[in-house]
Write a structure and sequence with these properties.
The protein is mostly beta strands. The protein is built from 3 helices and 36 strands.
């Protein structure tokens, strides 16, 4: 019997709570359509508090980890504070930004580098971002592992996980709150829901102010799933969730949660020199999905020969090997319904390999939402060809402004406007003038259609092109505040 994962509203509910929980609202007016129309015209105000969770970097004793934090914007007159501290009770702060527009960094070595939780308020809250980057030079977890810190939530999808021999995929669960969180993990392979070992995948307790790792193969010890989709949900509380994936002889990286299920998806920033690209897709609902595949490159969208379409059965993980999809040019994979009238929501990610033989390195590119009004990624390096920003306009022409902040060691910010043609991807390198240390990149939509973006950070090591890719999504730094529908001042006379 085939088991299917129902679509849930948990992610939407959590997002709304995160946005509105920190904003002061004016008094509501009368109910009804008129009130709704007035609310729709409400002003957008900066959020007053932001929360972030970062997973524990590595179990390797030779790991070298860099933490960075940044809030975009010019220094503000209003006060604000932010700090990231170890995910344990009474932990000391690791990062404490002081003002917008100035990134801060810290380093930690070995397996004792902690998972982090933290909050920012006042002028440091809108758009606050943080990143951890870990380099492991040898061993099973060898590679460059990058992860953007995320807001805690209740619902996460991870296509492209594996429980096969030679893979070691761990779900990292971090609880930032004062009450325990209860987590369920389900795995879906090519035949649907994988039967878990009794008592292993449900009611996983994550204690307050703590982190827990779960080896996915331990949940289904009798199943060797080369490609699977993990669904992480909470019964109580909320967590930050990320997957650290390691593949023997290939490399390791973080696999972030994919964008929420949607009928059309964009997977931005597949490196130009990728030697292997494997698409993994999953449909959580009841209807199968028939997808059209296109690669948005510098010259426009192309259809990969022999890989024009993919059929994804509901509740089952589908895989397509796209090999050397990019053929020497950076690109982004566009997934759209073959029949627009039948657009079944799905989630997707690609496993990317650069190099060959003993010089391979592994990374992941999940589907990512648009940058919206503004999006930021931290920990970019100023060395030549180290940082590449990929910008994709999937459906319509667009213009964005890209800003490189000063480095953690100084420098002057740099700005560039980029015009994108529909169906294209442009690669951009931008660094602060005279910048020292790591810096942040901020992308703002100026005009036109939606834009998707991803940053590739490459740090070669002994002939291995170590790399990691992070997508940029709307930082939701403002919230819509409904206008009062009537003057209530008479009540205070």
């Amino acid at each position: 019997m085939k088991h299917r994962a129902p679509l849930t509203l948990a992610a939407v509910t959590a997002a709304l709570a995160a946005l509105t929980g920190a904003a002061a609202l004016t008094a509501p007016g009368p109910a009804g359509p008129a009130a709704g129309a007035k609310a729709a015209t409400g002003a957008r105000m900066p959020v007053e508090r932001s929360l972030l969770v970062c997973p524990g970097p590595s179990s390797s004793d030779i790991a070298e980890t860099t933490y960075t934090s940044y809030t975009p914007g010019a220094p503000a007159d209003g006060k604000g504070s932010a700090r990231l501290l170890g995910a344990t009770k009474d932990a000391k702060p690791v990062l404490e930004p002081k003002e917008p527009g100035k990134p801060v960094g810290a380093t930690a070595n070995g397996a004792d580098a902690p998972a982090l939780t933290g909050s920012a308020d006042g002028s440091l809250a809108p758009g606050w971002t943080a990143q951890l980057t870990t380099k492991v030079s040898v061993g099973r977890t060898r590679g460059l592992l990058g992860a953007g810190c995320t807001a805690p939530g209740t619902d996460f999808w991870f296509p492209a996980v594996s429980t096969a021999k030679g893979r070691g995929d761990y779900v990292h669960l971090t609880n930032p709150d004062d009450a325990a969180a209860i987590v369920d993990i389900k795995l879906f392979g090519p035949d649907g829901l994988a039967k878990p070992e009794a008592g292993t995948s449900e009611n996983i307790r994550v204690d307050p102010k703590s982190t827990k790792t779960v080896l996915l193969s331990s949940l289904v010890p009798n199943a060797q799933l080369a490609d699977a989709t993990a669904h992480v949900t909470t019964r109580a509380g909320r967590v930050g969730a990320s997957v650290q994936a390691g593949e023997e002889g290939v490399g390791a990286d973080w696999l972030p949660a994919a964008a929420d299920p949607a009928g059309s998806l964009v997977l931005p920033g597949i490196p130009a020199d990728a030697t292997s690209v494997r698409l993994v897709a999953f449909v959580p609902g009841e209807e199968d999905a028939d997808l059209k595949l296109r690669l948005a490159g510098p010259g426009g969208p192309i259809t990969p020969a022999g890989s024009e379409q993919l059929h994804v059965k509901a509740g089952m993980t589908a895989v397509m090997d796209l090999k050397d999809l990019t053929r020497g040019e950076p690109g982004s994979l566009l997934l759209t319904p073959a029949d627009p009238a039948r657009a079944a929501p799905l989630v997707a990610a690609v496993r990317v390999v650069r190099g060959s033989g003993a010089k391979q390195e592994l990374g992941f590119v999940p589907a990512t939402g648009p940058v919206g009004a503004r999006a930021t990624v931290a920990d970019n390096r100023p060395e030549e060809n180290t940082t590449v920003l990929s910008l994709t306009a999937p459906t319509a022409d667009a213009k964005v402004k890209v800003t490189a902040s000063p480095g953690t060691g100084g420098g002057e910010p740099a700005t560039q406007e980029v015009t994108l043609k529909a169906g294209t991807t442009q690669a951009l390198t931008l660094a602060p003038a005279g910048g020292k240390g790591s810096y942040a990149l901020t992308v703002e939509t100026v005009s036109g259609g939606p834009v998707h973006a991803a940053r590739t950070l490459s740090l070669p090591h002994e002939g291995i092109t170590m790399f990691t890719v992070q997508g940029l999504s709307d930082d939701r730094s403002t919230v819509s505040v409904p206008r009062a529908s009537q003057d209530l001042s008479v009540l205070t006379r």
